Amino acid sequence: MAQRKHLDYFLRGRIIGRLECERTQLEVSEELGIAQSVISRLWQRFQDDGNVSRCYSTGRPRVTTPNEDLNRRSTASDLSRQVFSATDTTVSRQAVYRRLGHIGLYARSPARCVPFTATHCRLRLTWSREHALWKPQQWFCGMFSDKSKFSL
């Protein structure tokens, strides 16, 4: 299959200029060596909105709409099932995962840590009550200094 080349703006202007001078699309295509279908599409776009610039697209159109992307709490599998039941459009789990990732939502597993005991909770609560009325100057007194040295 032949490689497609995009028309530069100068050539697009030449095509539109010749068509505005009452030349036929077939004559212009033969003069410039461009397929008549390309000239027809360019002329149609120019007549519709007066624009000859390229419509940029990056691949396949989206399967889901922005409104369907709003439910961020569901899993990718649940979302693909919901889209299928609502629109009869098959959307893979991976497509939903990529779409969520595109807007900055990624699934993360919580870090494994030691659970708090009742003693931990009580100590944290008393510490927070003791320091609740501290003024900003008291917080700057080196309690959270970044120059602390630790040895493990």
From TrEMBL:
GO molecular function, one term: DNA binding
Annotated Transposase Tc1-like domain residues: 71-131
Subcellular location: Nucleus
Domain of life according to the entry: Eukaryota
One biological process term in Gene Ontology: DNA integration
GO annotations of cellular component type: nucleus
Pfam families per the UniProt record, alphabetical: HTH_Tnp_Tc3_2
Matches recorded under SUPFAM superfamilies: Homeodomain-like (SSF46689)
Protein name stated in the entry: Transposable element Tcb1 transposase
Organism of provenance: Trichonephila clavipes
Gene this chain is encoded by: TCB1_879
